[in-house]
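User: Just a sanity check before I run the rest of the batch. Below are the structure tokens for the first item. I only need the designed sequence back.
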């Protein structure tokens, strides 16, 4: 059942990008391409609301699949003379080797600064132990976050975004958390709002265990479209985790749609 839901989400995404009579490419390729670049840039001040399905087709060392429905909101705001980006991500595991239920909530707040070559930002990231039993670290975490995106080359955008998570409170019986998440950023506009990017690719280092916990690399395809008077970006993604650790995801298929609300 989970596999069918994930495949259905993929078909919906492709339908919105190419076959639905209600979905058309943004008039004016420049604006659509700009929105496509912002939608794949965690430092961009673009309000968006995303609904995704993340299907893990296989794990390293475990003969089982998993599926998560993920809600993500990006809320830019101004505080005095500073410009902020607040992002919250809430997954819900519909199936997994550890059970079903909410997974820990991830948040970050970034202060961003525009430059002639692109944009950079600094802030704080953290997680809230909202997950169900077996799906939570049972720890509150926080740590510095920062990154930059160079958009000086019209052919592509590139950069890096780093988040860190260190436990400071929570269940004493739960292991301490010390994680650095390095997200490479690379996106290529294909015209008419279409783009390829590295999507959710991330290299995760576990400081507590002094080892790389995950080396996830993937490719995301999406297209900015107009539907019902609003701007949307349906997208599909395929990821592979090159870190062969017991229980790690191996192949992940993601399908989602974002409502984009430019200022």
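Assistant: Here's the designed sequence for the first item:
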């Amino acid at each position: 059942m989970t596999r069918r839901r994930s495949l259905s989400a993929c078909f919906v995404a492709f339908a919105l990008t190419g076959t639905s009579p209600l979905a058309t490419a943004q008039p004016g390729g420049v604006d659509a391409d700009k929105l496509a670049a912002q939608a794949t840039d965690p430092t961009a001040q673009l309000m968006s609301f995303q609904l995704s399905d993340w299907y893990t087709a296989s794990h390293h060392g475990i003969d089982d699949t998993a599926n998560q429905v993920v809600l993500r909101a990006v809320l830019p705001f101004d505080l005095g003379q500073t410009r902020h980006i607040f992002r919250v991500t809430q997954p819900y595991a519909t199936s997994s080797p550890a059970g079903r239920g909410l997974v820990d909530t991830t948040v970050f707040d970034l202060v961003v600064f525009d430059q002639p070559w692109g944009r950079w930002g600094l802030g704080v990231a953290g997680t809230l132990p909202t997950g169900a039993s077996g799906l939570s670290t049972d720890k509150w975490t926080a740590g510095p976050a920062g990154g930059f995106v160079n958009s000086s080359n019209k052919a592509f955008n590139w950069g890096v975004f780093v988040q860190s998570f260190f436990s400071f409170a929570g269940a004493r019986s739960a292991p301490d958390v010390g994680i650095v998440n390095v997200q490479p950023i690379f996106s290529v506009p294909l015209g008419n709002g279409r783009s390829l990017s590295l999507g959710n690719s991330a290299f995760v280092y576990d400081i507590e265990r002094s080892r790389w916990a995950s080396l996830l690399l993937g490719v995301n395809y999406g297209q900015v479209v107009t539907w019902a008077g609003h701007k949307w970006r349906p997208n599909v993604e395929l990821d592979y985790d090159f870190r062969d650790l017991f229980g790690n995801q191996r192949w992940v298929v993601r399908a989602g749609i974002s409502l984009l609300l430019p200022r």
